[in-house]
Write a structure and sequence with these properties.
Elements (H helix, E strand, L loop, with lengths): L2 H15 L19 H4 L1 H42 L10 H4 L3 H12 L1 H9 L4 E6 L15 E8 L2 H14 L6 E5 L16 E5 L8 H10 L7 E7 L5 H18 L7 H8 L2 E8 L4 E7 L12 E3 L2
Parallel strand pairs: 1-2, 1-4, 2-3, 4-5, 6-8
Antiparallel strand pairs: 5-7, 6-7
């Protein structure tokens, strides 16, 4: 043992023998700078934990309550639907909802992205343009007017055409080569002087007509043989059976209130029309259909078309 260490030991022994040495005191080490507030403050941590549990409990209760409400509403609507006797032709409903139609569907379409799809489709209009099932004219503000040689707007509802006419004049007051027609688009339509339309647009129209395949076939006869596209934005059956069951169960209620059979098989309707499919894209679990068609040339066989799917 070294001399300095020996002197320290003897000094400690002398102090202990003389009763001078003090008992050891426990001193709490300072909290490290990196220690978390929760570990150094028990009470605040407990309060935070209780707050999280309370908020979580409220959220679970709210979700459970709302889910129960939706389920009960669905069951009630299903029972109501079974009592209804709704005809295939529900176009007369639009006369009752024309004035408030935009307000009733505007927010929902924006949230679902349908407004963007309308914009995208409207920007494709060019040449002699025909819009079928124009409704209140929700697509009119997206037309590139400088590319439109003429515009023809058709709907079966007089009230809807009135709203579309008012909207068109507000949006495009200087555009004069436009016609508004009240009729069934499945019936003959007078084509423009150029012997056919270059762009035919229909959004959410196959759900309301009693003869959707006949309507599409008629649109094919209105096409310019050299240059034409039929553009459809429709809603119908999904990819999934469980969702189709819901659509089927609620279809009578929805058709009676809004004039739309939202459970139609759009793919089968397009196939029955005999038109050539250029493109099909589907959104919202397959219930929203973007379709591009053109008349099939004589002797041309059907081609296999790949369907793009977006959820």
């Amino acid at each position: 043992m070294s001399r300095p260490l020996q002197r320290s030991v003897r000094r400690a022994q002398n102090l202990r023998n003389n009763g001078v040495a003090k008992p050891l005191e426990y001193r709490q080490s300072p909290t490290p700078k990196h220690a978390s507030p929760a570990s150094s403050a028990g009470i605040p941590f407990t309060r935070r934990r209780k707050a999280v549990l309370v908020i979580g409990g409220i959220a679970v209760y709210a979700f459970t309550t709302y889910s129960t409400y939706l389920y009960q509403s669905y069951k009630k609507a299903t029972v109501e639907a079974q009592k209804l006797d709704v005809p295939l032709d529900v176009s007369d409903r639009y006369g009752k909802i024309a004035k408030g139609f935009d307000d009733s569907v505007g927010l929902g379409e924006t949230v679902m992205g349908l407004t963007l799809l309308r914009w995208w489709m409207g920007r494709m209009a060019r040449g002699d343009v025909l819009e079928v099932s124009v409704g209140t004219g929700r697509n009119l503000k997206y037309y590139p007017m400088e590319k439109c040689k003429s515009i023809t707007l058709i709907d079966m509802s007089n009230e809807m055409v009135e709203e579309a006419t008012k909207k068109f004049k507000e949006l495009h007051p200087k555009y004069a080569n436009v016609k508004f027609i009240i009729q069934d688009a499945a019936l003959p339509v007078t084509p423009p002087p150029s012997a056919g339309f270059n762009t035919i647009i229909q959004t959410m129209g196959l759900c309301s007509t009693p003869r959707p395949a006949d309507l599409l076939r008629n649109l094919g006869t209105l096409c310019n043989k050299e240059d034409c596209r039929i553009l459809l934005l429709e809603h119908g059956r999904s990819h999934y059976r469980w969702l189709n069951r819901i659509l089927d169960n609620l279809a009578p209620v929805h058709a009676d209130k809004y004039g739309c059979w939202w459970n139609r098989d759009i793919g089968r309707i397009v196939e029955e029309s005999g038109l050539e499919v250029v493109k099909i894209s589907r959104y919202h679990l397959g219930t929203t259909w973007w379709i591009e068609l053109k008349p099939r040339q004589e002797g041309e066989s059907a081609k296999k078309v790949t369907t793009a799917v977006a959820y």
